[in-house]
Design a protein that fits this description.
Length: 357
C-alpha cells in the first residue's frame, strides 16, 4: 500500500543545470517503454484468441495510461513542485486532465465499437483507474528519479571537496619535507666536501623529481613509493653516520609490480620518526619495515623519543602537519580499507599501518 506521507512530502526544487526527471529524453524513454508493453499486450491478446472487447479496452487503457504518465512527468508534477501541498495540487491537475481526456477517448471508442454506452462506461473506469493507480505511480517514479539525481549531485560535490582537500594537503606536505632535506644537505656540506655531499645531492634530485612528476598523480606504482622511502632514509643516514649511538634499520621488501598507492602517503610517518626519534646527545634508534601480502600492505615505524623544548610560533603549528595530513588522506582515499595504530610511551613511538591496496 502507498502511504500518504510518502506521497505528500514536499521537495526542494532542482537547479537549472540538473538532469531533471522531466527532461524530454527521460519522458521519451518512458513512452517508448510503455508502448513496447502495449504492443506486447496486443500480441498476447491476439495470440490467445481473446474476445474483441478485452483487446480494445485493455490496449486503450494502457495507451491512455502511458500518455497520461508522460503529461504528468513533463508538466503536471513540475508545476506542482513549489506548492504548499504538492501532491494535492498535482492530484487535482491530474483529475482535470483525465476529465478533459474523456471526449477524445470516447471518440476513439465510438469509431472502433460504435457503442456509446460502452464508451461512457469505459471512460468512467479509465478516469478512476488513472487517478488512483497511474497518477500515484508516476509521482513515486518521478520522486525516486529526483532522489537518485540529487544523491549523484551530492556525490559530485563531495568529490570536488575531497579533491580540493587533497591538493591542499599535498601543498602542505611538500615544502615541509623540502626544508628538512635542505637542512640535512647543509649539515653534510659543512662536514666535508666530497662523495657524501654529491651523493646527497643526487638523492635529493631524485626525490624532487618524484615530487614534481609523480606526486600529483592519483596513484603511482608502490615500487616508486618504496624507492622514495629508501632515498629519504639514505639521505637522513648521511647526517647521522658519524654518531655511533644512532641506529637506523630498514626492511623495505620489494612490492608486486601491479601494486598501486597514493603518492607521499607513507613518508610522513618516517619523517616524523627522524624528527622526534634522533638525538645527537642520547642513544637513538629508528626501525622501518614494509611488506605486501595478498594485496595488503603492512607498514611499521618504530623510533625512540627524546624530551625536547616545546616549539613556539610557526614551528609549533607545523609540528603536526605531516601526521594530521596523512590521517585525512587515509580517510579520503582508503575509507574502511585501512587500519592505523599509533602507540606512544615516554621514550618510544610506534606506528602500524595496514592498507588494502
Amino acid at each position: 500500500m502507498l502511504s500518504l506521507p510518502a506521497l505528500t512530502r514536499p521537495f526542494t526544487a532542482l537547479g537549472p543545470d540538473d538532469a531533471h526527471p522531466s527532461a524530454p529524453r527521460t519522458i521519451a524513454r518512458d513512452v517508448l517503454l510503455g508502448f513496447a508493453l502495449w504492443f506486447m499486450l496486443l500480441l498476447f491478446l491476439v495470440s490467445t484468441d481473446a474476445p474483441n472487447e478485452p483487446r480494445v479496452y485493455g490496449c486503450t487503457l494502457l495507451a491512455v495510461a502511458v500518455l497520461f504518465h508522460a503529461v504528468a512527468c513533463r508538466w503536471l508534477i513540475p508545476s506542482s513542485w513549489g506548492k504548499r501541498r504538492p501532491f494535492g495540487s498535482y492530484w487535482l491537475k491530474a483529475f482535470l486532465v483525465l476529465v478533459a481526456s474523456v471526449v477524445p477517448v470516447a471518440l476513439v471508442l465510438l469509431i472502433i465499437t460504435s457503442d456509446s454506452e460502452v464508451a461512457i462506461g469505459f471512460n468512467v473506469f479509465q478516469v478512476f483507474f488513472n487517478l488512483l493507480v497511474t497518477a500515484p505511480l508516476s509521482w513515486l517514479l518521478y520522486r525516486r528519479r529526483w532522489q537518485r539525481q540529487s544523491a549523484l549531485t551530492g556525490l559530485q560535490q563531495e568529490l570536488g571537496h575531497s579533491e580540493a582537500s587533497l591538493d591542499l594537503l599535498r601543498s602542505q606536505i611538500n615544502p615541509h619535507f623540502l626544508f628538512n632535506a635542505l637542512n640535512t644537505l647543509y649539515g653534510t656540506a659543512l662536514q666535508e666536501h666530497g662523495e657524501r655531499t654529491a651523493h646527497g645531492i643526487q638523492l635529493l634530485g631524485d626525490m624532487m623529481r618524484f615530487m614534481l612528476h609523480e606526486n600529483h598523480q592519483a596513484h603511482i606504482a608502490l615500487t616508486r613509493e618504496i624507492d622514495y622511502l629508501r632515498n629519504y632514509v639514505e639521505l637522513q643516514t648521511l647526517r647521522t653516520a658519524t654518531s655511533p649511538d644512532i641506529s637506523i634499520s630498514t626492511s623495505l621488501a620489494d612490492a608486486p609490480a601491479a601494486a598501486q598507492i597514493a603518492p607521499m602517503l607513507l613518508i610522513p610517518f618516517v619523517e616524523n620518526a627522524f624528527k622526534h626519534g634522533i638525538s645527537l646527545q642520547h642513544k637513538s634508534w629508528i626501525k622501518v619495515t614494509l611488506h605486501v601480502e595478498q594485496g595488503t600492505l603492512y607498514f611499521d615505524v618504530y623510533n625512540s623519543l627524546h624530551a625536547r623544548p616545546a616549539p613556539a610560533g610557526p614551528a609549533a603549528e607545523a609540528s603536526g602537519i605531516g601526521l594530521s595530513n596523512v590521517r585525512q588522506r587515509l580517510q579520503l582515499l582508503y575509507p574502511e580499507r585501512h587500519e592505523l595504530i599509533i602507540r606512544r610511551s615516554l621514550d618510544e613511538y610506534f606506528v602500524h599501518l595496514t592498507l588494502q591496496l
